[in-house]
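Help!! Second protein's tokens look totally different from the first
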Amino acid sequence: MEHVVAVAVIDARGIVTGWSEGARLLTGHPAEEAVGRAATELLAEDLPTAAGQAWSRPVVVRHRDGHPVTLAVTACPLLGPGGEALGWTLTAERPAAPEPTLAGRAFQQASMSMSVFDPRQRYLRLNEVACKVMGVSEDVLLGRAFMDTIEDAEHSRGFNLHLRKVVETGRPLRYESWTGAPSLNREHAWTTEMWPVREPSGEVVGVALAAFDSTQQYLARQRLALLNEAAASIGTTLDVVRTAEEVVGLLVPRFADFASVDLLDWVLGADEPPPVPDGEIVLRRVAHGSVHEGTPEAAVHLGETDAHPPYSAPARALREGRAVRSQAGEPDFMRWLAERNVRSPQGRPFRRGVHSMISVPLRARGTTLGVLVGVRMAHPDDYEADDAVFAEELASRAAVCIDNARRFARERTTALALQHSLLPRGLPGQAAVEVAHRYLPSGSTAGIGGDWFDVIPLSGSRVALVVGDVVGHGISSSATMGRLCMAVRTLADVDLPPDELLTHLDDLVTHLAGYQEGADEVAELGATCLYAVYDPVSRRLTLAAAGHPAPALLLPDGRAELIRMAPGPPLGVGGLPFEAIELDLPEGAVVALYTDGLIEDRDRDVDRATGELCSALTAPATTLDALCDTVLKAVLPEEPSDDVALLLARTRALGTDQVATWDVEPDPAHVAAARQAATEQLAAWGLEETAFVTELVVSELVTNAIRYGEPPIQLRLIRDRSLICEVSDGSSTSPHLRRAHAFDEGGRGLLLVAQLTQRWGSRQTGRGKTIWAEQTLEPQ
């Protein structure tokens, strides 16, 4: 049946003054019969009066041939300039007839939006849900093209394009979109099934569609996608603040228009976690972000603390250990918003429209770290129960990352403190070399390594230069480094040659590995070490390495090169020998010892890096400290992946005027001559005040060498920062202090030497041993 709409106009007296063609079709009365008559004469029933108000109801009118006709009438008052009623405008149509078939009623009453279009994308039929979505009745849309009934937007054009494709291809399509609708106040996700409608001949005569509101499923997929993204984007660094920033960046703007991460103060320090207080909770802002550039709505600046009263959602979330949702209109929410506005009135315009907030505790391994807050302003939906489940899952993952970063920072701080306590703070005074050093801990996630160095004064004005590296990172590597450092100092005190010292150190590492708890077999600690001894008298450098990179040498003429040496096996391998080499160095040569972090990296060529090192050593520098900085700047990448230790030593030499040497005949009668020669040399040096003690030392040491040692015997005096007396002989038997009894004739000589000198000792040489004693000299 043809759809007809009638229009009539009635004045304030109730007289018909206007009559449409549609009114004639519905009532049978032509305009010349209806206009001028009282409207009541056309009615088949009395109507209740409506005092100037619009109304809509079924009305029974009398057809021209006498039978009643029921029409759906809508009346709107016509108002004058003063608001007085001038009449009425009425529109009428036949009430919608019920669908005659079950299939038609199923289509009309379907719970999803269903529509039928002709091949030119014009509406042929809509069900009730489709009309509700479009916000108009079916008769307004029938016969109109889809693009004429909706705004010209990208999603509308995409929808229309799919309608055309179904007609052109004759195949069904599925179209998914995230868009709004004329009668909806927010965007929805739609899954639309489109299929062709055919004649028996197969010709496509229309397109039918059914649109499902899949918003909940879409949001669930979005939340799942965010969780998956969180696994890759949160915790990329072991930095607490950076991890919090990654959480905020993930949430804004897809889940929140504003988000913040506030942590308890102890998380950012090294303290143990205290219990969460029952009353006011103080948190420190570490990260926030919003849809507005610069986050102007934030009432708390980064780094500031914020005291949350017990009623606030963040405090409740921390105490209850669950997500807390709050919406506009709730008393506590309004108090929170008012407090934000008072604290930061300049951000008030950017908080306009705030209507929902979610607060989620950050808990990891049973420990509360802080709270994550999300706020919605432009986003139309309030936070729902599903959002709370998602937020708790995300917060759980984020909290683990933050706790990992906290633990890493704490371990790094501990390892760094341990390492700094073991490394030399102020290098000991000695005259053999001028030294400068740098130690750069790695900033990588692996943690602090086991790099170390040392400068150890030895007897005879010699000095030991040491650099080593324990493979691995963390407190364990730092502790192992400390053991090796102390072991080297102990072995250096025995004054062993470099190759022998490394042999003893290798045995120690093997024993340490075997003592590890839970180890079924000896594990390799993977330590390397380079030990060098420089003698300023002979100007000779003796060195040996255990798996360590060879040092570089800068000569006074400006040439720089690597020292050629056999590195030997790393410490802990056991059973393999170490080989020492000797070099005669000119005064002013610079020896560069370093760990592998300076030249080795996954993306670097070692030969090229060592070339850069040698080139950097030749750069002009006023001091050794400046040269250290030059080398590091030239050789290191921007972000080193390992710790770096660098030790530069510039050699000095003791001139012939500072050393006196005498060969002594192995006869007690020559002790007096040796004593006299030493006294005369002291006078030449202007050290007469040391003559008494020196005579006693020379007499005792020479006498012992003659009595208990073997030739050749040699006496040497060295004037350095201290006065050193050395007596060498061909025997390898070392003397030792012993307690002399009351009636013993001897045994008191070395005791006198130990009492009268600053320190004394013995060392093995290639031809026997050397007994030495030092006296402190007053600075001149």
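Here's the second one for comparison:
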Amino acid sequence: MRNKFAVPLIVLGVLLMLIGIGQRTFWAPPETQSVSMDAEGAEDAVVTLLEPELLAEYSDGVDITVRSDAPFTLAVGRANDVQAWVADAAAARLSPGEDSSSLAVGTDKTGKTAPNPAGSDLWVIEESGEGELSHDWKAPGEGDWRILLATDGTAPAPTDVTLTWENDATRPFAVPLIVIGALLAVLGLALAFLRSGSDGPRRSGRRSAGPDSAGRDSGAADKQPSVSGTTSAFTAAAPRPRRRRRPAYLAAAAAAVLAAGSAPAAALAGESAAGSQPVIVDSQLTRILDSVAGTVEAGDAAKDASMLTPRVGGAAYAMRAANYAVAAKSADHEAPVPVAAETLRTQSIGTAADWPRTVVAVTQGEGNPVPQALLLVQDSARDNYKLVSAVQMLPASTFPQPPAATDGSAQIPADSDNGLAMSPQGAVAALADSLTNPEGEKKETFGANRFSEDVVKFQQQVQSDPKNEFATNTFLHAADPKETYALRTADGGAIVFGYLSNTFSSTPKEAGDSVNLEGTVYQALTGETNTDKGIDVTHGEAVMLYVPASGGTGQALVVGAAQELLSANLK
């Protein structure tokens, strides 16, 4: 009886295996799928945007191919940053269509243009293309992202866009068919083998003299080789096992389980990160620092302040421009301390979603005897970061510990104490007062520091010098509230950058008295050897302070400073 089932089982098994193999090979769906943008109605757009919800559809990655006859820029940035940069420019927006074979194209037909996007500090990734560009999209980090495509911001943006991804479609019964087919074939072989094996002993234990038994023996002998041959044929025809990717439906199920298990944690992480994501990533900071350092180096070499404007502003620009002007009249005037992009020792990245945005980097290059704190500020989405303060760390000082790099540092309004012992502006004003009136009420506001000691010592020497007995000498330090910036530290305090003007005024006491300028840099600046009316000399003082959190007993600290002669004017 068993032989009646053996052959059908083998045939059925082989057939099922062939069907399963076919579903994985010549009946298999294409390895990739793609969808292209329909450019109709988007001809006037000056930017093309791949929206966050579209990119989120391809969390495992997607290949984006862009074709354009004109040179163009592909930029990746945080969704809100890209939107802020685009503003009211005419845009074509790509989002998911009704199915996987289409894209929805929306347009903002405001008719406005945009700047050239090339070189913007907002971009986490930037690529230039002409003709055809293929970008392998993967999210640079957590959060929502947008991709921007544009030429120069005025000409039409690229609209020939194709997304290609691995095809998740599969034949779910392919593997089961192969497995079941193999089992049936093996079962059929086993039945055939057992039948032939059990016939042998019965024949050998029986004396067969008649033609009947000879016929059965001979038939059994004929069948044995055929079974053996069938086994060999099956072995030869069986496909060799090959490693293939796990079926998509299994991967999707595993992903769903993992996603379900981690959903609450992910939601909490997203909620906590929403207001505390650093405004730039490490690669952006490196690129920005390189650009700033290169610009400053070129300006220093040429002593040309106009070369600084793309990357330097505020107090840093005022102090460097003044240095160049003084050096033009006094050849031995000391050059400013170089600005280095590396080595990067620490950093504090702001988290403000709006502008201005603040970043601090502490670097030390070969030309820096001590570490230097660089304050970078971005005024708007379409502006690049500019160096607005560069101060040298003071002896025996340390940079206040910023929050974890993944959290970023909250920006603190200059005029608000915001949980601090005093507001950032209040701290800078208190320092100015303590330098103007060393014995005044602000004397104990700051701990001992080299900057304050040197400034006060110089002032006392000038006022007590017998050579200056015929002149009245005064010093006035005043804070510039527009140049105050603050970032939260890990302990709840703040790192504060400020800018002071230090005006030294020397006026003859009586008629006939004069102020001697001979041999000083003031002679080079004014062209006079002495003055009977007096002189006003102004220095710029960039400072970096630490302000403790409110409720503590610690003093505020001066941890960095830089000073530069700005002007010397006769009264």
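Reply: Different proteins will give different token patterns, so don't panic. The radius of gyration is 39 Å.
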